[in-house]
Write a structure and sequence with these properties.
Elements (H helix, E strand, L loop, with lengths): L3 E4 L2 E4 L10 H5 L2 E9 L2 E2 L2 H14 L8 H14 L5 E8 L16 E7 L6 H6 L1 E5 L20 H13 L3 E5 L5 E3 L4 E6 L2 E4 L10 H12 L3 E4 L4 H5 L3 E6 L3 E8 L2 E2 L7 H16 L2 E2 L3
Parallel strand pairs: 7-8, 7-14, 11-12
Antiparallel strand pairs: 1-2, 1-6, 3-4, 3-5, 4-16, 5-6, 8-9, 10-11, 10-13, 13-14, 14-15
This protein binds 3-[O-phosphonopyridoxyl]--amino-benzoic acid.
């Protein structure tokens, strides 16, 4: 049986959930989105994801057609209607239907849809063995152009980086910003562990202010680590004890090799594994309940 999709105020079967070819989300990538996960009958970090969605929308002068609490309710209803215990939820707001010109003034009503689906878990061996990653040539978008802090529907910068990483046979690409500093992966933030410290690039380096990133910084402090946002170069990764990526879908993935050079011992690190465990505990115990 197909999914029930929330589209502009109604829950409808997936075969009927269609948007116009004149929607500017499609014609220009004009819109914003969120990827959220549900664990064990709860939605993890829902308020945090929604705050970021409204901030992204504000940054592109797009009005989300629902108030915060209404949208939260629509998401809970959509997950409930699909009877999901563990879920991956995509919330998308586009500029809406317009004409064949890019002027957003012509788009009178934003399009809002919510897809609540089951999550395809990454194979366990990825977490056990760790990832090989490469630095890609394509640079992260300038913060002064389309700020990577905006989770917009225009993901070509990341997709070009992913294509490049794929072409080398690596599992993921690390993007540098225009100044040559490390920004992030194509859909994950990056961390390194050095001695007793956890480092991640600041949002000003051209990264998404990741929800998992925030959670991991809190977990790190809880484990007694120094946590610092710091500009870093490839040198810092080459010489780190450990490295990992964070994201809602991937959670926490160890990185064991950059550009053919092993990081630390070349195996997933002890701190990385500790943070992974703590993160799992959190996902199983926190969140907005769906079925109460
Ligand atoms: N950086 C970028 C560029 C992202 O798109 C993250 C970091 C991690 O953020 P959160 O808040 O999830 O910790 C993301 C989000 C996918 C996919 O299918 C992944 C993301 C977005 C869209 C699709 O892998 N990651």
């Amino acid at each position: 049986m197909g999914l029930l999709i929330y589209l502009n105020g109604r829950l409808i079967p997936e075969d009927e959930a269609k948007v116009s070819v004149f929607d500017h989300g499609l014609l220009y990538g004009d819109g914003v989105f969120e990827g959220i996960r549900g664990y064990n009958g709860r939605i993890f970090k829902l308020d945090e994801h929604l705050r970021r969605l409204y901030a992204s929308a504000k940054a592109i002068m797009l009005d989300v057609p629902l108030e915060f609490s209404e949208l939260k309710d629509a998401i809970v209803q959509t997950v409930r209607a699909n009877k999901l215990k563990d879920s991956y939820i995509r919330v998308v707001v586009t500029r809406g239907e317009g004409d064949l010109g890019l002027d957003p003034k012509k788009c009178r009503v934003p399009t809002l849809f919510i897809i609540a689906s089951s999550i395809q878990l990454y194979p366990a061996e990825i977490y056990e063995r760790g990832l090989n990653v490469v630095t890609v040539a394509v640079r992260r978008n300038l913060t002064e152009a389309v700020n990577p802090a905006i989770k917009s529907l225009n993901y070509l910068n990341n997709i070009m980086a992913k294509i490049e990483a794929n072409s080398t046979g690596a599992s993921e690409g690390i993007m540098l910003n225009n100044a040559g500093y490390v920004s992030e992966g194509t859909g994950e933030n990056i961390f390194i562990v050095s001695k007793n410290s956890l480092f991640t690039p600041p949002v000003t380096a051209g990264v998404l202010d990741g929800i998992t990133r925030d959670t991991v910084m809190d977990l790190g402090r809880g484990l007694g680590l120094e946590v610092e946002e710091k500009e870093m170069t490839r040198y810092d990764i080459f010489t780190a004890d450990e490295c990992f990526l964070t994201g809602t879908a991937a959670e926490i993935v160890p990185v064991v090799c950059l550009d053919g050079r092993p990081i630390g011992t070349g195996k997933p690190g002890e701190v990385t594994n500790r943070i992974r465990k703590e993160y799992t505990v959190l996902t199983m115990s926190e969140g907005v309940p769906i079925y109460e």
